[in-house]
Design goal:
By secondary structure, the chain is α+β, with helices and mostly antiparallel strands. The chain contains eleven helices and six strands. Pfam families: DUF3684.
């Protein structure tokens, strides 16, 4: 037996636009309320047209955080919490679980079951320095960058284009102080046009303190940077 919509403060058979307006203007403000709302709405999901569902994909109505720092996210920006997950993903992504029936409603609205490489690339593009810090620094960041490189074919062309155009690619520059013999390495996020691919090691020796290059001895990353540059 379906749960009546009157529980949400609307008439029993309202136009679906009324329901989307409710979620847009007065979304549930805590987990318990959200669970109840989503369970009620699951029983009426068949009434939503394709355009209605498309609107729900982008509506920020999933509550997150304590009342003092409450924010709302669209279902498409959330992932179903199914237990264990990589620590980095837990830091970079938002995982939710409101119970089976409520989750089913959110899945119909775009909730994702798992983090895929396209999502990781998008997070990197959005805030590369935060990604770097959450990964744990240079070496651990390279591990994640290699994953993106190896799975590049699973990343959409628009995302690859953004990766090329924005300051999302890690460049490395080595410099040596006048009174020191050791090289010091600087890291910076750059566009594909700002990262140099080293083809001539002799020339590089002359200008290495001025150029940001791809991480050295990382052939898969170099090939990926070259391909991304084509976008």
């Amino acid at each position: 037996m379906s749960m009546p919509l009157v529980q949400l403060g609307v008439t029993q058979q309202p136009p679906t636009s009324k329901i989307s307006d409710l979620l847009e203007n007065t979304p549930p403000r805590d987990g318990q309320t959200a669970r109840h709302w989503f369970e009620v709405l699951l029983d009426h999901i068949s009434a939503f047209s394709s355009s209605d569902r498309n609107k729900l994909l982008g509506l920020p109505f999933v509550p997150m955080g304590p009342p003092s720092a409450l924010k709302f996210l669209p279902p498409t920006k959330c992932y179903l919490n199914q237990g264990s997950k990589p620590k980095l993903y837990a830091k970079l992504s938002v995982f939710v679980n409101f119970g089976d029936r409520a989750n089913d409603f959110l899945c119909a609205c775009g909730l994702k079951n798992q983090v895929v490489i396209e999502d990781i690339a998008e997070v990197l593009i959005e805030n590369p320095q935060q990604f770097f810090d959450f990964a744990g620094g240079y070496e651990d960041f390279l591990v994640e960058l290699r994953k993106i490189a190896y799975q590049r074919r699973d990343i959409s062309n628009p995302t690859l284009h953004k990766m090329s155009d924005k300051h999302a690619l890690l460049g490395v520059r080595r410099q040596k102080a006048e009174d020191q013999d050791e090289w010091h390495y600087n890291h910076k996020f750059l566009t594909s046009q700002e990262v140099t691919i080293v083809n001539d090691s002799d020339d590089y020796q002359l200008f290495s303190d001025r150029l940001f290059i791809t991480p050295q001895e990382e052939e898969v990353l170099e090939h990926t940077y070259i391909n991304i540059n084509l976008w």
